Amino acid sequence: MTLISTLTGVTASLAAVAAGFLLGLPLLALALIYPVAGVLGCTACQWALEQRERLAARPQLAYYSPRPYFG
């Protein structure tokens, strides 16, 4: 009887550990994903602002007019 009780207790303990791990896994994934997504978002925003500044700083091309070529 003691053996059955011990096996039941060990099985219940292992099931509880497995359930805790499976329930905690999504939280762990979120804890890892959110900071990475935040850093990537900041990097993308900074890149977009730099591209906008770079495009605004380049010399503007004159408007094309066909008049000098075709009278």
UniProtKB/TrEMBL annotation:
It comes from the Bacteria. Keywords: Plasmid. This is Uncharacterized protein. It comes from Leisingera caerulea (Phaeobacter caeruleus).
